[in-house]
Amino acid sequence: MMKMLEAGGLLPVTDNIRTADKDNPKGYYEYERVKKMPDGDTEWLGKATGKTVKVISALLEHLPSAYTYKVIFMLRDMQEILASQHQMLVRSNKPTDKVSDDDLAEMYRKHLAKVRTWLAEQENISIMYVDYNDIMSNPGSYPERIQRFLGFPLDIEKMKTVVDPNLYRQRRQTN
pTM of whole model > 0.70? Predict the structure, then answer.
């Protein structure tokens, strides 16, 4: 999504500290100060107006109410999330058996329900939910919707070209 938004003409807020690796060969769109929002480090948000910032769901509640936000929330199949996380742990030589997949899936479902409820209660946040699996299969169907949601012109044609199906490695199993 961040790559699509950048192709559409929006500047990402990144610090390029986390570089491309086997898990994400085209790189990351991360800004380390986002992780410090729970500690009150939000001054940088004023400089992010009109740009895109990647914020994981667990940190959304730390966005200050002084600003308005348009959040594009990516939803993904639970089994794919677990498979992706497992693969990242294996590649970094970290233990993969601390929590069972069933327990992890249940914890994430509860977290997601809590975040969705919180988001629905925020008057300063507009939300668009996007299905990761669908965007990987049908990337051309989203740019116009994203443009309408954000409310300003984007380079729709460029946005349609940046999704790389070769990076969709942890696919859900179909019978």
Answer: yes
Cα–Cα dist 28/25, whole Å: 9
DSSP percent split of the chain into helix, strand, coil, nearest 5: 50, 10, 40
Q: Please state the domain count of the chain.
A: 1
DSSP state of 71: E
What CA–CA distance (Å, rounded) separates 143 from 7?
Answer: 10
Position 170 in a domain? no
Mean pLDDT across 5-25: 84
Q: Identify the domain containing residue 21 by its residue range.
A: 2-164
Distances (CA, A) of 20 to 14, 24, 26, 34, 83: 13, 6, 6, 19, 19
* Distance in angstroms (rounded) separating the CA atoms of residues 162 and 67: 30
Whole-angstrom distance, CA of residue 31 vs CA of residue 33: 6
Instruction: Confirm whether 172 is domain-assigned.
Output: no
For residues 72 and 93, what is the distance between their CA atoms, to the nearest angstrom?
32
Q: What is the pLDDT of residues 121-166, one digit of tens each?
A: 999 999 999 998 889 888 888 999 999 999 999 999 999 999 866 6
Read off the pLDDT of residues 37-94 as tens digits, 9 standing for 90 and up: 999 999 999 999 999 999 999 999 999 999 999 999 999 887 877 776 666 666 666 6
149 lies in a domain?
A: yes
